[in-house]
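An example makes the point: we let one protein speak, the chain in one-letter code, the fold tokenised, and here it is:
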Amino acid sequence: LPASGVYSVVAQVNGVEYKALANIGTNPTVGNDHLSLEVHLLDFQGDLYGQSLTISFLSFLREEKKFASLDELKQQIAEDVQMSFV
């Protein structure tokens, strides 16, 4: 597995590619304790539960960290998007 942290990725769903962010880690801000991979597709509307995605890792953005609040986490995600795709 790649190292824990946040990555700039491209996700392919049903033959369509989307810019995305991925987090590998335990999601400490929300209190999880198990390793997971979460992918946030930009400019996508819909339900992907039960579907397969193909993820291509582009670059490592930062280490995973615990934020004091969900608002701080959301702000950091917005900054990650700006750093990745602008």
About this structure: The mean pLDDT is 91.
